């Protein structure tokens, strides 16, 4: 598998498919449901993204790598049909607005090693390039480090990443081209995505969790419950629970004005790998829109699914007293909380405090054409729900 494919200048389905096939020497992409979304994604690259030359290289490489992953996944399922028998039981998903404490809470939970979390190298390369079942060496950690070394300082500081640290699972869904594109300004593509059924995206996530769990099994490890995290799930809780009906969803809550402004700052740093000039007003408009969609969809999902599927936790509790809410959270998940687990969580909390970013993230909504008043007006339904249902006033 090539980490740096030959870059084509034309963003077409045929060009990307051909590059992926040439890279790994395989032809079977499996279910062709991804082709329609792929075409719309490529159209967005051509018509909306306004990419720099470097951005075009990055975007083409990412599309090819997603498709290379699909090819290798299908090859593994064909060679090892027992992978399809893997059962993904009662996974836990940590979700919430971006910058609402999801990373801190997820990494704290993952300090209890009884959970099965996804490491950065696993979400970047969920399947081995070679046949590790036959004893081939696994090169994925080294390739992941190379990719991390290319990240900008701004994006690394806003969301620190390391090869073996717990990471978000949204990259596993990116192979469907149905996951919202947070890294580029492609509003027409995003509006199209909002009208699509996201269920296939979660079926494909399930397929990748099966293959990741199978890799642990062939190494001799017993399967553990997955503890996963991605803010993007907030928009898709209904299809998530359709595909994973026994899942437990932990939802973080923060003042949306702070979450939105902080997310704008993070995405501004992230988008520099695609474009030379970023319009902060456009960025702010899109971040607020996606935040409102996620919050509104999550409220609708609560009406459609059992109350016991959800655990609500505020940003303040995540930051100021996480260990105090852990017993209630573990009762919700059904996981035992013994002395060894509590000690591991305490150590994890201490490590998390020691590794806080030294940078002061100063964000101002006005830079992005936003104001607290505007954000509160557009999230009023969510704020009223939090006040009446959770008994908390998020905007103070």
From TrEMBL:
First-tier enzyme category under EC: transferase
One MF annotation (Gene Ontology) recorded for this entry: transferase activity
InterPro entries cross-referenced by the UniProt entry: P-loop_NTPase, Stf3_sulfotransferase
E.C. no: 2.8.2.-
Alphabetical list of Pfam families matching this protein: Sulfotransfer_3
Keyword Transferase: yes
Alphabetically ordered keywords of this record: Transferase
Presence of keyword Lyase: no
Protein name: Sulfotransferase
Organism: [Mycobacterium] vasticus
């Amino acid at each position: 598998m090539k980490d740096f494919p030959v870059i084509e200048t034309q963003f077409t389905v045929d060009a990307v498919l051909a590059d992926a096939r040439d890279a790994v020497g395989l032809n079977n992409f499996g279910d062709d449901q991804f082709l329609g979304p792929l075409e719309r994604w490529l159209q967005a690259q051509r018509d909306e993204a306004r990419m720099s030359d470097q951005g075009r290289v990055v975007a083409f490489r990412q599309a090819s790598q997603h498709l290379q992953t699909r090819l290798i996944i299908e090859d593994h399922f064909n060679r090892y049909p027992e992978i399809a028998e893997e059962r993904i039981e009662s996974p836990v998903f940590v979700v919430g607005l971006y910058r609402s404490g999801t990373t801190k809470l997820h990494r704290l939970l993952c300090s209890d090693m009884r959970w099965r979390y996804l490491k950065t190298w696993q979400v970047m390369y969920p399947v081995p390039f070679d046949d590790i079942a036959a004893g081939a060496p696994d090169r994925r950690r080294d390739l992941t480090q190379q990719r991390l070394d290319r990240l900008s300082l701004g994006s690394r500081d806003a969301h620190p990443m390391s090869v073996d640290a717990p990471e978000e699972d949204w990259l596993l869904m990116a192979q469907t081209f149905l996951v919202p594109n947070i890294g580029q300004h492609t509003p027409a593509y995003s509006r199209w995505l909002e009208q699509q059924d996201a269920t296939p995206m979660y079926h494909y996530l399930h397929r990748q969790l099966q293959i990741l769990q199978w890799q642990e099994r062939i190494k001799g490890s017993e399967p553990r419950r997955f503890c996963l995290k991605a803010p993007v799930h907030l928009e898709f809780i209904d299809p998530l629970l359709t595909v994973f009906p026994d899942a437990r969803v932990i939802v973080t809550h923060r003042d949306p004005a702070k979450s939105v402004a902080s997310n704008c700052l993070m995405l501004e740093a992230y988008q520099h790998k695609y474009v030379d000039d970023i319009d902060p007003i456009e960025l702010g408009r899109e971040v607020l829109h996606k935040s409102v969609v996620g919050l509104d969809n999550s409220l609708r999902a609560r009406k459609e699914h059992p109350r016991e599927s959800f655990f609500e936790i505020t940003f303040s509790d995540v930051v100021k007293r996480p260990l105090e809410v852990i017993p209630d959270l573990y009762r919700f998940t059904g996981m035992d909380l013994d002395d060894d687990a509590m000690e591991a969580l305490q150590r994890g909390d201490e490590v998390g405090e020691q590794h806080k970013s030294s940078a002061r993230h100063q964000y101002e909504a006005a830079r992005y054409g936003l104001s607290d008043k505007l954000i509160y007006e557009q999230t009023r339904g969510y704020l009223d729900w939090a006040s009446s249902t959770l008994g908390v006033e998020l905007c103070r």
